């Protein structure tokens, strides 16, 4: 209610209301100033309103007093029940937990004013779920109320929780929620076999490693707490079987470790133990977490193939054994109750199997061809045995036949040796180690002996030392060898084997004598080196070579000086030696005659007249005092010399002047035999030409020319 002191109650004052909720929530009586709520108020929606009021003159409309502000507060009543905003709840707790084990805390919210009265004071209680769980009325914490709750008995619990305001008093509002509680598993139960004896039937033909049966122990626990490990307790028959755990079904899978045989043993009995892998120490006092059961296995008789008496057969036979000779036998037997007969045949795979045959009834193996150990030392093939009553049931066995050697071949030296001995070798020095081979057997299976042949035993050059390990050494017996006397020695060595009959061969070693240094290192084994001085040092050989080189240089210088001197004489002489031309019908004197006359005089005169003067000779020296016609029967000489002159004229490397350097023609029937320069001496030393007088009148002029002590061109005609 609003009232102004200026209001005398005569209706001259008018009250106005403005602000939060004016006209919509609240209204005012303009005459009396009473404020009324025109609709229901909700504190939880708006707890207070701020309004402004003013008194106004009815006539003038002017405020009589300043505007005043006031607040209308909504007083709370208990009109909201508690609510579980997070419900429904899901919780879990391990089974076998003790009393008071924490499970979950729930919380309810009341929208009423907690500062006014008890409208917002909430109290919790369990409406459903007792006596298994309890709840704290103030905090809402849920705990276990019974000990040893077993998941295997009951796993799921649904608890109904109530929250009531007004402190739980009568008339308070309440809200509820559901809590689903699950007991989680712990390993509190050992595995148990549902029965104490398991019976299995297994065919004797079961393969090793195959599964022959399954057994299972029951564990009411869950997950890893229910994982079971199976083991065979050592005892009767346990070594033939093995057991593993199927990780999906937790069953024990029994597998075969060794083959079964009904005829040998018809039944096996052993025990199997089942135990948990993951134990909980809190429950050790309950007892051992394992169980034991007995497994009995009955072996079923099956129709089986024959069984060989051995897993493999090895036989031996000598090479060259006659065809049809029995070398051994295989045996197979039907172990079934019917005991059927057995037939044998070879498993043909290649041509090697044709060397042997087998008797189908007896199983004896015989040769079918002649055997040669040097060609094939071992044969490997298979024999198949089948039952007469059921030919489809077969078994196979390998047969190895070793061909024994008959000593046919003599031993011989393994490789061709290149043996050498130093000239300065000492007696007893080993110059070569030799080995032998035998085509019959490898050296590992033979014993070889080495010795000299009887004809070489008496010679004092070399000997053979047998080391008795299939090797021998060649030793010297002399103090030094000379290549000048003998370069090669041939040593016959006799090699014998140890087989029967004994075979031997004579092998000849070639020993070459070589020059070696003081350390025994070979320096030369060539034939050309035999004539070198023996015992000369390297320094002495170098000195000899230097002397030879110096002598050669002196000879070359001397020859060069002589040639230079003669060249100067020819160029300065007014009467050139080429003017001294001798015409005769006999064969020429070779290269040496070029110093006495110009061989160009033998040319055809017509050719000489036609030839132009060469620029490299003096013109006045080409005049001849007289000419003689050439012999008619020496046309071959003319043609030959013209050809050679033509070659020298066009050859820039030919010597100057029209002199013929060399020619190799000789006539027939000469008393002086060959005048070719091939046999001429290489030096220009004075020679004895007196023998020219003995050749007859044809060579008189030549004898006079070369017989004079001094050369005089005026005497030449």
TrEMBL record:
UniProt GO molecular function: beta-catenin binding; cadherin binding; calcium ion binding
Keywords: Calcium, Cell adhesion, Cell membrane, Cleavage on pair of basic residues, Glycoprotein, Membrane, Metal-binding, Phosphoprotein, Repeat, Signal, Transmembrane, Transmembrane helix
Chief location: membrane
Any Pfam family hit: Cadherin
Localization per record: Cell membrane
Membrane topology: Single-pass type I membrane protein
CDD domains: Cadherin_repeat (cd11304)
InterPro entries xref list: Cadherin, Cadherin-like_dom, Cadherin-like_sf, Cadherin_CS, Cadherin_Y-type_LIR, Catenin-bd_sf
Function: Cadherins are calcium-dependent cell adhesion proteins. They preferentially interact with themselves in a homophilic manner in connecting cells; cadherins may thus contribute to the sorting of heterogeneous cell types.
Protein name: Cadherin-12
Source organism (scientific name): Sylvietta virens
């Amino acid at each position: 209610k609003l009232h102004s002191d200026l209001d005398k109650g005569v209706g001259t004052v008018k009250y106005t209301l403005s602000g939060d909720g004016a006209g919509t929530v609240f209204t005012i009586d303009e005459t009396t100033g009473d404020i009324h709520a025109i609709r229901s108020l909700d504190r939880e929606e708006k707890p207070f309103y701020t309004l402004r009021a003013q008194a106004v003159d009815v006539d003038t409309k002017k405020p009589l007093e300043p505007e005043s502000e006031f607040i209308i507060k909504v007083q709370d009543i208990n009109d909201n029940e508690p609510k579980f905003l997070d419900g429904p709840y899901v919780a879990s707790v391990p089974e076998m937990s003790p009393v008071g084990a924490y499970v979950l805390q729930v919380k309810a919210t009341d929208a009423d004013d907690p500062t006014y009265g008890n409208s917002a004071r909430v109290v919790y209680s369990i409406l459903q779920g007792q006596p298994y769980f309890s709840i704290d009325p103030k905090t809402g914490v849920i705990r276990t109320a019974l000990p040893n709750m077993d998941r295997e008995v009951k796993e799921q619990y649904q608890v109904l929780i109530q929250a009531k305001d007004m402190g739980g008093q009568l008339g308070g509002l309440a809200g509820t929620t559901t809590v689903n509680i699950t007991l989680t598993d712990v390993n509190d139960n050992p595995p148990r076999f549902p029965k104490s004896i398991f019976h299995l039937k297994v065919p004797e033909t079961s393969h090793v490693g195959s599964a022959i049966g399954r057994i299972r122990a029951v564990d009411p626990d869950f997950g890893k707490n229910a994982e079971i490990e199976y083991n065979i307790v050592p005892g009767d028959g346990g070594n033939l079987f093995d057991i593993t755990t199927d990780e999906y079904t937790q069953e024990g899978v029994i597998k075969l470790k060794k083959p079964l045989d009904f005829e040998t043993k018809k039944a096996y009995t052993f025990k199997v133990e089942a135990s948990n892998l993951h134990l909980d120490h809190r429950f050790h006092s309950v007892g051992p977490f394992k169980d034991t059961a007995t497994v009995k296995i009955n072996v079923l008789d099956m129709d089986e193939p024959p069984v060989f008496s051995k897993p493999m057969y090895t036989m031996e036979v000598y090479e060259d054994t006659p065809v049809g000779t029995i070398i051994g036998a295989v045996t197979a037997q039907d172990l079934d109750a019917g005991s059927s007969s057995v037939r044998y045949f070879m498993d043909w795979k290649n041509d090697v199997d044709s060397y042997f045959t087998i008797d189908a009834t007896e199983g004896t193996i015989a040769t079918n061809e002649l055997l040669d150990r040097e060609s094939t030392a071992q044969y490997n093939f298979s024999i198949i045995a089948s039952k007469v009553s059921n030919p489809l049931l077969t078994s196979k066995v390998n047969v190895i036949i070793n061909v024994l050697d008959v000593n046919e071949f003599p031993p011989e030296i393994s490789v061709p040796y290149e043996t050498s001995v130093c000239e300065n070798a000492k007696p007893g020095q080993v110059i070569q180690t030799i080995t032998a081979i035998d085509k019959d057997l490898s050296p590992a299976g033979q014993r070889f002996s080495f010795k000299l042949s009887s004809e070489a035993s008496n010679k004092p050059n070399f000997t053979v030392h047998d080391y008795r390990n299939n090797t021998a050494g060649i030793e010297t017996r002399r103090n030094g060898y000379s290549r000048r006397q003998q370069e090669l020695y041939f040593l016959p060595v006799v090699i014998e084997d140890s087989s029967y009959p004994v075979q031997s061969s004579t092998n000849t070693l070639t020993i070459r004598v070589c020059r070696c240094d003081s350390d025994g290192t070979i320096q030369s084994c060539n034939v050309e080196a035999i004539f070198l001085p023996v015992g000369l040092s390297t320094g002495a050989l170098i000195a000899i070579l230097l002397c030879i080189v110096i002598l050669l240089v002196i000879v070359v210088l001397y020859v060069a000086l002589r040639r230079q001197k003669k060249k100067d004489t020819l160029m300065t002489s007014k009467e050139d030696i080429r003017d001294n031309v001798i015409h005769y019908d006999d064969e020429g004197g070779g290269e040496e005659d070029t110093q006495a006359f110009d061989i160009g005089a033998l040319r055809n005169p017509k050719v000489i007249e036609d030839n132009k003067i060469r620029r490299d000779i003096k013109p006045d020296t080409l005049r001849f005092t007289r000419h003689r016609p050439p012999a008619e029967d020496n046309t071959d000489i003319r043609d030959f010399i013209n050809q050679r002159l033509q070659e020298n004229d066009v050859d820039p490397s030919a010597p100057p002047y029209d002199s013929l350097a060399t020619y190799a023609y000789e006539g027939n029937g000469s008393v002086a035999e060959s005048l070719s320069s091939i046999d001429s001496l290489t030096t220009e030393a004075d020679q004895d030409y007196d023998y020219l007088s003995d050749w007859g009148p044809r060579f008189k002029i030549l004898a006079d020319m070369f017989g004079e002590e001094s050369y005089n061109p005026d005497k030449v005609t």
